[in-house]
Amino acid sequence: MMMPSTSSIIAGEESIVPSVASVSGESSLSDMTQTVHFSSGNPRIGETRGVMHLFSDDAVSSSSSSSSDLPIGRNPLVCVLGVPNHMTYADFCQFCGSFIQHILNMRTVRNDGVENRYSILISFDSQESTDTFYQHFRGKQFNSLEEDVCRLLFTLDVQYTGYSGTIDHTQPSAAGPIEQPTCPVCLERLDQDTGGILTTMCNHSFHCSCISNWADSSCPVCRYCQQQPENSVCCVCQTTENLWMCVICGVVGCGRYKGGHARRHWEETEHCYSLELETQRVWDYAGDNYVHRLIQSKTDGKLVELNSHGSLSKDGCGSFECSDSGMTDALLNSKVDMIISEYDELLHAQLENQKQYFEKLLQNVKEETEQKVAEAASKAISQRQQKLQTRFDRCMKEKHFLEDLNENLVKNKDVWITKITEMEEREKKAVQAKDKKIQGLEEQIGKLMAEMTDSEVLESEEVEDGTVLPISTDTTSFSVSGNNAS
């Protein structure tokens, strides 16, 4: 059984991928493949939708190191799923730089239902290069700082299912010559033999070497960014309908048919120019009319001038009709001078308004700052004064306490002086009495000693006479009692 042919993944041209011979039947292939819906193109201009038939992860062994372990019936076409949106075209080209010379085409697509990520279809010059690329980059981190890894799947078939847009997308007639497209950067032919070709999300094609020098995530031709911003909302009521953005300061507000916050912003700031996000038209609140001169072409997304004297053709480009072709240059020159003069006046007026507006803001900020400084100084002085008053009160309280203590000590001093004087007098009298008593005792001892001496003399005299006379007891007691009485 022969599988259907695969459309080219670059420019929409029909090309044939080598046919796949069924080995185990149609049911076996369907069990090993999975279907992924995708889309590409700028939704504002045209969007191409399609289906990718990818070999599932179960069809490849996790430890496959040789071509025999890879799925049978594979093509030199792989898909890198889940590339982070912050990874630019240049980053991805640098990531797979060692295989750039073997890559024929790369196409960036969006997967349905997947946000903040995109996928890349890569076509190689041979099956051997495809297998080597698959084995080398499968499961490899995009960079060492993130956990995201490269998820590679072999692609069995890619089919385009439809196109929706504002321009005709019919294929050119095969009878006439087909001009080969050129790279918008280097203006050389987009020939697969000379190098790899990368097609961005908006269907613009470049040489890989040329897009590698473009550090931005947007397209160099139409500035369509693969990393779409979040949905805008009104800064006041948070609505997402009928939004207008101030072209001077970028504030987003709703229109007069909603909450009228965009107009209120003009009344507060005098920013009179506002851009309608849905139609990209500019409204002048002061003049109460549209003033935009550039619109987005529906053909290629480029900005073209809206000619007020001409007409707007169906393809979105302005056309100018003049009966005398010799007057064209003069009219264009005069129109350019008029536009320059008008732009200068407009710029001068807007700068003057902005100067007054910001001077007013600065004056308000200055007054608020001075008021805040005065309030802060007054508050600080009040707090300092309160602290000093508290400290003063505490010191006065301590002073009164010390004065009372000193007065009590003075009174106690007088009392103690009186007591000490009385004690000294008592001590003096006690000493005098003691001295008088000691003197009396000394006199008694002297008399006693004299009597004892007299007694000894008498006894000695009696011994010499040979007669010992008994001493009368009464006489001795009388003499002792007489001494005690004395």
TrEMBL record:
GO cellular component: cytoplasm
Regions annotated as coiled coil: 348-386, 424-451
Gene3D superfamilies found in the cross-reference section: Zinc/RING finger domain, C3HC4 (zinc finger)
Compositionally biased tracts (Acidic residues): 456-465
RING-type domain location: 183-223
Any Gene Ontology biological process: Ras protein signal transduction
PANTHER family, A to Z: BRCA1-ASSOCIATED PROTEIN
Record-given protein name: RING-type domain-containing protein
